[in-house]
Prior knowledge:
alpha/beta, TIM Barrel, 2 domains, 8-stranded mixed β-barrel, 17 helices
Amino acid sequence: MRAQTREFEQALASDEFIFHYQPKVSFLTGRVDGAEALIRWRRADGSIVSAADFMPAATAGGFATAITRHMFPKLVEDLRRIRAAHGNTRLAFNISAEDLEETDVVGMVRNAISDDGLDAGSLEIEVTEGTAVSADPAIVRSLTGLLAAGVRLAMDDYGIGFSSLETLNRLPFSALKMDQSFVLRMLRSPKSATLVKTSVAMAQLLGIRTVIEGIETEEVYQALLHYGCDEGQGYWISRPLPLEAYVGFLNEERRWPSSPIGMLRMAQLTHNWQLKLLVDLLYGFLKRSGAGAPNGVPEALHIGFRDCALGHWYYGGGCALAGDPDFDSLEQPHRALHELCGEILSTMQAGRDCVRIRALLLELSERSCEMGVSLQRLETKLLLAELN
C-alpha cells in the first residue's frame, strides 16, 4: 500500500494523468455531438493505464478526489480548446460519491461556470446509480448544487441496481446511460433487447435523453438505429482518443448511419401517451357524471402543439422530411388535435356538460386515428427508403 501511495503522489506531482475522449454519435444525424472524458494514467515509461485498472486502488488509498481536483481544471481547458477548434460541443465527466462528499470539488465546478464563464450546457456530470441513490446528506446537497448551477446530470450504468426508477423520479436527470451489459447481449437475447427498448421508451416519456454505450459492432449499431436512442458510443465508433486526436477526429467530419425513424417512433409514443392520459382524465370525469371539475390538469396535457413531443420532432429534427406529402399533411390535424384538447379541458373545468364531453371524446378519437394513419404511412415510407 505504501508503494502505491508513493506512486499516486508521484503521478500527481508529475502531472501524469490525462484525459482521453470517447466520441458520442447522434442516431438522428450520424454526426459526433459530444464525448465522454475518461481519465488515463500516462506513466513515466509511456504506457497508458485505464482508469478501471488504477481507480479502485486510488479510491481505496484516498486519492480519487485528489485526482478529480487535479483533473477538473484540465477538463475545462480541454473543453475550451475543443470548442475553439470545432464550435459547440458537450463533454461528460464522471464524478464519484467521494467527490460529491467534498464541497470544494462541487465548488470548483460551480466556480468554473459562474466565475470563468464556462457554459453549463456544455458540461454533463455522470454519476453511477449507486451514487445517485445515496441518502448521504452531503451527496444530496452536492447534486442539488450542481443542478442549481445549470449542470446536467446523467445516470451512468442504468439498469444494474435496484433503485433506478425511484432515482429517476427523485432527481431531474437529463440523460440515462444504459449499462453496456444489456447492449452486449441484445442481439442474442430477446429479453435484453426488450429491456433496452422499454428503457429508451420510458426515458422518452420522462423527457430524458438516452445514451447507449458498449457499441462494439456495426450490427449492434444498426439494431439500435430504430429504437429511438439519442446517442451511442463504443469501440465500433471510436476508442477513447487523446485530445489532439479527438480534435482531428472531429475535423474529419465523419458520418455514421442515421435514421429519423427512431425519433419519429418516440415522438408518436409520447404523444399517444399524453392522449391516453387525457382520455383517462375524461373517463374519470364522466364516471363521476361531471360531479366537479378535476383538481388541476396534469402538466403533460396542458402544452401547445409546438411544445409536445411530436411538435418538438416536427419542428425540429423532422424538418428534414419537409416536402413529403405525408409529413406536410401532419401539421393541420396535429394543430386541430391540440385545439380540441384545449376545448375539452376548458369544458371540463367549466363543470357538468357531460353530453358535450362525450361528443368531444369521440371527435378526439377520430382525429387521433386520422393523424395516426399519416404517421404510420410516413414511417413505412421511411423504412422502405432505407432499404434502397
